Amino acid sequence: MNDLVRFESFIRVPEIFYGMVGITRYGEPRNTTKARLKQLFFWSSYANTIFCLIIEHIYFFRAAGNFTNFLELTALAPCIGFTALSIVKIMTIKLNEAKLNGILDRLKELFPVTHLEQTRYRTHQYNLESQMVMKSFSILYMILIWIFNLLPLVSMLVNYLMSGVLVRELPYFMWYWYDWHREGLYEITFFHQNWGAFDSAVFNLCTDLMFCAVILLMCLQFDIIAVRLRAAKDDPQELISCVQLHQTVLELGDQLESIFSPSILVNFLGSSVIICLVGFQATSQISAFDLFKFVLFLISSLVQVFLLCYYGNKLIEASSQIPYAAFQGEWYLADVRYRKSLLFLMARAGKWQKLTAMKFSVVSLASFTGFPPRWTTMARIKDTSSQHLPPGSIFERAQS
Question: Which residue ranges make up each domain of the chain?
Fold first, then answer.
């Protein structure tokens, strides 16, 4: 390929969805009139989503107090969980916007920009995977939300053709203090629910996609370190550069975990409940319309968790290759000091970079295969790269 891959290509898809809900995209000025209008749109969308969550809860508790249809309650609960999860996840981004932009700035500085570098480090393959996964996941999510939003219109049309009576339906169970069946009010209520559901889907989607994009960029850096270590030979300066880059990527990984770890925990817990309830709905005696949308909901929830676990596992694999790459180099031709320094790099790299759900569970494919995951307390991984350095080690210079 002759075209250079741009850094922005990796985050283009989540940035598009950020723009849909009014979040200022990476690199955009934040003190302009356009940025302020986008902020106003975001907070109005966020307030509407919270309002939807409140009236969903009111409907749920009123229905539960009247001991109404149990299937109706279990159909409402996944929607409540989905909305609550989206609110938590998008606020994770908003509260850590400056920190996330700092991570992206650093990764952009490290990004290979020449044809030779991008060919050597397989940047095009990384970009191809990024585009394929993100676009596929986005299409799946958008199909899900618009089937949920528009299926009542199909049901209304089918009932009208069969019975000649128009019975108005809404996509979601929410409590309203007025009669939404009336003409005019129904259209407003229908739009209100569609707006809230779309925002919830986009909040979930853009947060997950940005998480995956940052991990993929970090994996690229681990690959760069591995390639350079295999070709380092007896070059102390190159080894120092690899150590410094490795330390930088590890620090970025710790920052990424501090941002996303709370939302990942909520995601795992919420998705566990959602999947169980949706599975119950899918196996119950419900209409073909409801069965179709709940099966799609179940698939989408599983795919969402799988995506997080897959990229968490990808980060573990990318970081775990560093000691092997160091061993595959021509270290046996180097002097003793170089070999000792390389041993300490391999020892530190043996503690793989991993993300956790608030230390309760590692984000990996092993967690997904046992989903809902086993909640085992994780010991915090400490950076010991600067401890117990041998006298005269070239690592002393790498720390400066």
Answer: 7-380
Residue 6 one-letter amino acid: R
Nearest to 201 by CA among 170, 171, 180, 168: 171
Of residues 275, 301, 390, the one with CA closest to residue 337: 390
The pair of three-digit structure tokens given for residue 59, joined into one six-digit string: 């409907």
DSSP H helical segments within 164-184, as ranges? none
Q: pTM for this one? A: 0.84
Report in angstroms the alpha-carbon separations of 116 from 1, 3, 9, 225, 344.
11, 12, 19, 16, 30
| Nearest alpha carbon to residue 23 among 41, 9, 48 | 41
What pLDDT score does 2 carry?
57
Beta carbons within 8 Å of 209's beta carbon, 6+ residues apart? 13, 14, 17, 134, 137, 138
Integer Cα distance of 189 and 207 in angstroms: 27
- What Rg, from alpha-carbon coordinates, does the chain have? 25
Between CA 350 and CA 347 the distance in angstroms is: 5
Distance of CA 103 to the CA centre of its chain: 15
Per-residue model confidence as pLDDT tens digits over 195-229: 988 998 899 888 889 999 999 999 999 999 888 88
Among 229, 261, 271, 242, smallest CA distance to 354 is for 261
Q: Which amino acid is at 45?
A: S
Structure token pair of residue 134: 């993100």
Tell me how far apart the alpha carbons of residues 89 and 87 are, in angstroms, rounded to a whole number: 6
Half-sphere CA count of 185, side-chain side, radius 13 A: 7
Nearest to 268 by CA among 393, 400, 157, 372: 372
Read off the pLDDT of residues 228-276 as tens digits, 9 standing for 90 and up.
888 877 777 877 888 888 889 989 988 998 888 888 888 888 777 777 7
Q: Is the pLDDT of residue 381 over 50?
A: no
